[in-house]
Amino acid sequence: MSYPYPPAVPAAPAPAVGSRVPGGRGPWWVRVLISAAITVLLWGLSLVILIVTDRIFTGSWANFIAWTVIYLLFVVILALWGRTVVRGILGALIAFVLLTISHGLDALFLVNDFHLYDWYETIANIGTPLFLIGAIGGWSLARRATAFAWIGVIPMVGVVAVATWVLNYHLPDVPYSWFEHHDYTPTWWWFAYMSVQAAFIIAGVLAVWACDAIGLAVRRNRPNPPSAGPTAAWGAQGVQAPWPPSSPATSGQPSWPGQQPVWPSQPPQAWPGPPPTQPPPGT
């Protein structure tokens, strides 16, 4: 006897859920351009603050307040531009804590306590690494994609050490030795100082990103487990199932004794409704 079973249709896959934050959406080159634009914006604002407060002699507190605004802007950007909500908030929190400590050390010199200037070198060697780690670590933590990014802490420490030496022991000697007769520091020196500082921050971020890229490559090359195949759905329209059926529900013994199923050479049309549990009359 011939027993027409309805064809099976693969179940529809679940829709992919993307990131809910802007930092985790869009193609990679768009995110790179946006990150570069953020870097240029912060670099330009920092340069303007240094030049303006140096030229019009607005005072150290005006410079301190202006840098506070930039730090807060950076923290807000990290929270919004993180790859995920959790990583964005965590990166912003780390940056906020380290930048606050670094900026608080700068405030010690604004109280006009000249005894503190004996500790200037020590305070600078603490504040500068905290600033660099806050900027590099906060950004990398918010933008990381894999756990391999943590390996980037090793080269980041080297970048921070070299940057601290250059920013505290090399660049400050230039204006004091070359421009002691000027009422203000030349614009090109501020441009060079901010560019060198930004270059070290970018180098630290790229060091972490390189390790993160290794993690992404390992994830892509990892073999996927074999799929169990599509799930059959009775009475569904669309994709034709293999014929004759080979699932345990149709290839086992028939539900009535003395009968053996005979599969036709071509699959029949889909059975309307659920499959029957009893043989058709007359078989």
Your description of this structure?
The chain is built from 8 helices and no strands. The chain is an all-alpha fold and 283 residues long.
Number of DSSP-assigned strands: 0
Tally of alpha and pi helices:
8
| Low-confidence segments | 14-18, 230-235, 247-251
Task: Give the strand content.
Answer: under 5%
Helix content: 55-70%
Give helix and strand order, one letter per element, not per position.
HHHHHHHH
Quick check: average pLDDT?
Answer: 78
What keyword list fits this structure?
mainly alpha; 283 residues
Topology:
Blueprint: H1 28-55, H2 60-81, H3 85-107, H4 120-143, H5 153-170, H6 173-178, H7 187-221, H8 248-251
Helix pairs in contact: 1-2, 1-7, 2-3, 2-4, 3-4, 4-5, 4-7, 5-7
Quick structural overview:
With 283 residues, this protein is mainly α. The protein is built from eight helices and no strands.
